[in-house]
């Protein structure tokens, strides 16, 4: 059985998603990620302050997202200052 891409939601994004992680079909690119995240979650992912990491490496450009079978894509919410 093939493994998909695991999307991990951190912080307030996990609250928004109602789950900490979700499996989607591989391969996954930026448009595929947006398609997998409807409504407010997709809007949050598009936000310029939301960062994306693939297998622990932060992407400088979210649109460059390319993930394959067994990869983990983490969505990191903006860090609130204090």
Major β-sheet annotation: 5 strands, mixed
Tell me the count of domains. 1
CATH class: Alpha Beta
Number-wise, the strands total: 7
Q: CATH fold name, please?
A: Ubiquitin-like (UB roll)
Order of helix and strand elements from N to C terminus:
EHEEHHEEEE
Structural class: alpha+beta
> Strand content of the residues, in percent?
25-35%
Number of helices: 3
Low-confidence stretches: none
In which range does the helix fraction lie? 25-40%
Q: What is the CA-based Rg, rounded?
A: 12 Å
Average pLDDT for all residues:
93
- The gross shape turns out to be globular
With strands numbered from the N-terminus, the spatial order across the biggest sheet is: 2-1-7-4-5
Specify the CATH architecture: Roll
Describe the fold and architecture:
The protein contains three helices and seven strands. With 82 residues, the chain is α+β, with helices and mostly antiparallel strands. It starts with a strand and ends in a 6-residue tail after the last strand.
SSE inventory with pairings:
Layout: E1 5-9, H1 12-17, E2 21-24, E3 28-29, H2 30-36, H3 39-46, E4 51-54, E5 57-58, E6 66-67, E7 72-76
Parallel strand pairs: 1-7
Antiparallel strand pairs: 1-2, 3-6, 4-5, 4-7
Helix pairs in contact: 2-3
What's a concise summary of this model?
The protein has 82 residues and is α+β, with helices and mostly antiparallel strands.
Defining traits:
Ubiquitin-like (UB roll), 3 helices, about 80 residues, five-stranded mixed sheet, Mopterin_synth/thiamin_S_b, globular, about 25% helix, alpha+beta, two-stranded antiparallel ribbon, 7 strands, ThiS/MoaD-like
